[in-house]
């Protein structure tokens, strides 16, 4: 029972990290600019001003946005499927479908962070990756570990 509680807690933590990484405005930061997947915030006269991401390659930006959102959707769906399988899966069976959904979530966030790394901000001299970017990579590791756990885990036979 304690193992299941730990898995559910880790899964919820991973979902929260994925949502923060997708929503928060700190994928690329400088002293006066903070950029996320949806817009750019610039500091002028002690006020933050929002601007659309016009200077970014649209196909790469949309790919990062889509795969980040899909990672969140598949992780949330995997949690609900896991909880449903706890009550419906025959004893001794593996949580394969949950593991597949979690693997898809893992691949989605890895794809988003990889495209962001390879295609966006490659020519900028100032600034660096922010905490949302780092959370995306941490979420990748956690979703990968959860996917392996679900693929190996069997429903206990009593």
Content-based structural category: alpha+beta
Strand order of the largest sheet: 4-3-2-1-5
Main pleated-sheet profile: 5 strands, antiparallel
Roughly what fraction of the amino acids lie in strands? 5-15%
Order of helices and strands: HEEEEHHEH
Helix content: 55-70%
Q: Uncertain regions: pLDDT < 50 for 5+ in a row? A: none
- What Rg do the Cα atoms give? 18 Å
Can you tell me the overall shape? elongated
Mean pLDDT: 91
**Quantity of strands, as a count:** 5
What is the end-to-end distance?
13 Å
Individual helix count: 4
Short key terms for the protein model shown above:
158 residues; alpha+beta; 4 helices; 63% helix
Tell me what the structure shows:
63% of the residues lie in helices and 11% in strands. A five-stranded antiparallel β-sheet has the order 4-3-2-1-5. Helix 1 packs antiparallel against helix 2, helix 1 packs antiparallel against helix 4 and helix 2 runs antiparallel to helix 3. The protein starts with a helix and ends in a 6-residue tail after the last helix.
